[in-house]
Design brief:
This protein has one domain. It is 79% helix and 0% strand. Helix 4 runs antiparallel to helix 5, helix 4 packs parallel to helix 6 and helix 5 packs antiparallel against helix 6. The radius of gyration is 17 Å and the shape is globular. The two termini are 19 Å apart.
Length: 168
């Protein structure tokens, strides 16, 4: 159920974002619609797989899709956008749908990614749409890392008691 709800929620969020851009006349390019449709196709595949008892496969596809989208966003815009918080989605999906170890690995991967991206920006090895600021390396990367790790530890502490309660 987690994969289905997450896939539908992400699809709905994308539609709402495009509608918002259209209403505020801040919509920039029709490529966005094609990208959204491609992502929604991947999400539909996840829903279909989950409905056909392939939940683990659906979860992995959804996790990889979310990781790719998050890394693409971070590489394109840097880590200091609010979208970097979306990295919590693959962490939580891994924790709930695969296992806690996978969630911890994905969280650590995110921590490394935000520091590497900020470092590469600071050395002018990575150019992003939003310009580099020192705070990306001194504030944004550490805070994002702390949020990723805290969410992972908090979720990890909930999972075992939750499963024990649900499957008594």
């Amino acid at each position: 159920m987690v994969v289905i709800i997450t896939s539908l929620a992400i699809s709905g969020a994308m539609i709402l974002l495009v509608v918002y851009w259209l209403v505020t006349k801040s919509f920039e390019t029709v490529k966005t619609i094609f990208a959204m449709l491609a992502i929604m196709l991947g999400l539909a595949l996840c829903v279909w797989l989950a409905l056909n008892n392939q939940v683990r496969t659906a979860a992995w596809i959804l996790i990889v899709l979310m990781l790719l989208l998050n890394f693409a966003n971070m590489l394109g815009y840097g880590i200091a956008t609010s979208a970097s918080a979306a990295y919590l989605i693959p962490i939580l999906l891994a924790m709930f749908c695969i296992d806690t170890t996978t969630g911890y690995v994905i969280a650590m991967l995110g921590c490394m990614a935000v520091f590497v991206i900020a470092f590469l920006q600071s050395k002018e090895k990575l150019k992003t749409f939003l310009p580099y600021q020192v705070s990306h390396l001194t504030f944004d990367a550490p805070v994002l890392s702390l949020v990723y790790v805290l969410i992972t530890f908090i979720t990890g502490s909930w999972i075992t008691p939750l499963k024990e309660f649900l499957f008594k």
